[in-house]
Amino acid sequence: MKSLQYFLLAITLLTASITTYQIWQMNKSIPDRREYFNIMKFELPCSKEALDSLIKFWTSDIERKEFVIQQLHIDYVFMSVIFPFVMVWCLRMRSRYISVNQGESKNILAKILLIFGLLQLLAWAFDFFENRQLEEWIIAGKAGEIALFKALVISKFIIILVGVFLSIITYIKTRNFSAKNTSEEY
What we know:
Layout: H1 2-28, H2 39-43, H3 48-59, H4 62-100, H5 108-140, H6 147-180
Helix pairs in contact: 1-4, 4-5, 4-6, 5-6
C-alpha cells in the first residue's frame, strides 16, 4: 500500500505542476490582472452573477475557452489520483494506529480514519460532478443554479481536508512507534 501511495503522490504532484505551469503561462497573456485564471473563482463563486461574469470573460475568446476546458480535463486526472491518495493515506494511518494500539480497531480514531478514507470516494464523485457542471456552463456561456454546486464543492473540500488533517495528526501521534519499528511498512 505504501508503494501505491507514493505512486499516487507522484502523479498528483506531476499534474499539479503541469496545471500550475499552464496557468502561469495563460495569466502572463492577460492584460487585466483582475481577470487572471484561478480555478477557485469557478469552484466557489460569491454569486451566480459573479460566475456568469467569469464564464463570459473566459469564453469570449476561443483560446481562453479552450484553456479552461483543458484545465478541467487535467483536473479529471488530478482528482483521479488525489482522492485515492488521501484514501490510501487514511487507511495506512488507520493500520498504523491499530498496530501502535496492539490491534485495537474499535478506537474512535481508527473508525474515523476508516470513514474519512472511504468518504474520499464520495468527495471524488462530488469533484467529478463539479467539473461536468462547469464544462456544461462554459460551453453554454452561462451558469445555471449554483446552490447544489456550491454545497458539493464545499463538502468535497471539507472531506479531503479532514482526511489530510487526520492522517497528519495520526502520523505525528504514531511516529515514535514507527521509528522504533522500522521494519514495519507504514
